[in-house]
Specification:
Length: 479
């Protein structure tokens, strides 16, 4: 009898192992899948050798031409190359967002917000958000005025620091812009701005950025292998993930409670007030709720500062390491502005896109992507690798974007995505990057710190970053 039971268990396990390693029909090629782990071990080995997940997937794509992998229970397709990325971004069948429990954890095990929702819920909330943010300046001339004010506050802070340090000051550049960029978003959402020295907000941003380094765009160890939440909560990133979100939830609830106490119906000061007016209306849509308002606030708090501030930080890293380009930029700023503060009149944050989900079985590049499978694009490889079409794509050559003194629109440059999932905050991100960069270069030289060269090793996470310091001094050239 016992041998029958053992044989039955062995048969069931063998069948499960076979099914767990079997790829869907016409699925993109990639490493073999093994029971339980999928292809995690191959991906981890490549990541260890090359230093990052985006470099690992780019290298594996060169082997398999197309690339999919499975980590634990999750099959994931990686798109590589500008044309393939465009096809993914523009496909109506691939505009869904993940439904895995990992992505719901951040919003109380429900699908809330605008960043990670889809279908009619997302469409209604996105329309409402963009329509009413415009009332407080988003995407208008008033937005550039708001950002210019934040640039002014940051420059005042730098001036004060320089005076206190006998003519120059050293800053940790990876965190220098985060408060200012957050303020440009938060003033519209909650009517509040924070000083550079606000310790509570600095602490909150610090733990949030630390969490971003323990996860990646398609999940974390505890999401691919859920048992790790219980066996290794610290090592798998689960403890950090939940503790960070709890502190952000507490902060947002306090902000909302403060708004409720001073809210005057139909006299909105910011987006929160507008949303509270809707919630007090007896006939509002089911997609509106306090939880949804908090989730929108969380999306804007996280996405509204981390990516843009990291991009500005990278900008100054390249300018610091390429003094010739820095001087050229300053010369042009002097010629155009003639001493006036910069005004907005012209214009790759993440290594991967925010994950898409197949809303139905669909075709991509000749392969079948089954319903609910996650798909991401390797933006770093598409814009900075051989597939980008650029000559010497990994070199800092801003002149490649200029022709006869005018900015050239480069077809393969896709930092904000395309289609219905194009970044909602694109106009604000472009304005922040331009105005903060021009504002600092107009007044200051940004140089290396003696005996403290920048560590060029990219810190992985939701958004890649580099930790470095810069010495900022007043420019000797006339303004």
């Amino acid at each position: 009898m016992i041998w029958i039971a053992v044989s039955l268990v062995a048969t069931i396990l063998s069948l499960w192992a076979f099914l767990d390693t079997r790829k869907p029909k016409k699925f993109p090629p990639g490493p073999a899948w093994y029971p339980v782990v999928g292809s995690a071990h191959q991906l981890l080995r490549a990541r260890t050798q090359l230093g990052s997940l985006y470099e690992a997937t780019a290298a594996l794509i060169q082997v398999f031409l197309k690339f999919c992998f499975q980590v634990g229970k999750d099959p994931i397709v990686v798109v590589y190359g500008p044309q393939e990325t465009k096809e993914m971004e523009l496909s109506e069948d691939l505009i869904g967002r993940p439904i895995d429990p990992y992505f719901k954890l951040r919003t109380w095990n429900k699908r809330r917000g605008v960043l990670l929702t889809d279908n009619k819920f997302w469409q209604e909330q996105k329309r409402f958000l963009l329509r009413h943010l415009k009332e407080f300046g988003f995407g208008t001339k008033n937005m550039s005025v708001l950002i210019e004010q934040e640039v002014g506050h940051l420059l005042d802070f730098i001036e004060k620091s320089i005076d206190e340090n006998q003519g120059s000051v050293v800053f940790k550049m990876e965190s220098m812009f985060s408060m200012s960029v957050l303020n440009t978003v938060w003033c519209m959402l909650a009517g509040v701005r924070y000083s550079q020295e606000d310790q509570k907000m600095k602490s909150l941003q610090s733990i949030m950025f630390r969490m971003f380094k323990t996860i990646h765009m398609v999940g974390a160890a505890f999401s691919h292998f859920p048992i790790l939440k219980y066996l290794a909560p610290q090592l798998s990133g689960y403890k950090c993930y939940m503790e960070t979100h709890q502190q952000i939830w507490d902060f947002l609830r306090d902000e909302l409670d403060a708004h409720k106490k001073t809210h005057v119906p139909h006299h909105p000061r910011d987006l929160m007030d507008v949303y509270l007016d809707v919630l007090r209306s007896p006939d509002h849509s089911e997609s509106f709720s306090e939880e949804q308002l908090l989730a929108i606030s969380m999306d804007m708090f996280m996405a509204g500062s981390e990516t843009t501030s990291n991009t500005i930080s990278f900008t100054f890293l390249y300018l610091m390491l390429n003094e010739r380009v820095q001087k050229m930029a300053q010369k042009e700023i002097d010629a155009v502005l003639a001493g006036r503060p910069p005004r907005l009149r012209m214009f790759g944050g993440r290594a991967f896109t925010v994950p898409h989900r197949a809303l139905r079985d669909t075709n991509l590049g000749g392969y079948i992507i089954p319903k609910d499978v996650l798909i991401v694009a390797n933006l770093h490889g598409s814009m900075m690798g051989p597939a980008s079409g650029f000559e010497n794509p990994d070199e800092f050559i801003p002149e490649r974007y200029l022709k006869n003194g005018k900015v050239v629109q480069v077809e393969n440059h896709l930092p904000f995505g395309l289609g219905k999932r194009r970044c909602m905050g694109e106009s604000m991100a472009r304005a922040n990057i331009f105005l903060f960069t021009a504002g600092l270069l107009q007044r200051y030289d940004v140089g290396l710190v003696p005996d403290s060269p920048p560590d060029m090793k990219t810190v992985e996470g939701v958004t890649p970053s580099v930790h470095y310091k810069s010495r900022i001094t007043r420019r000797s050239a006339p303004q």
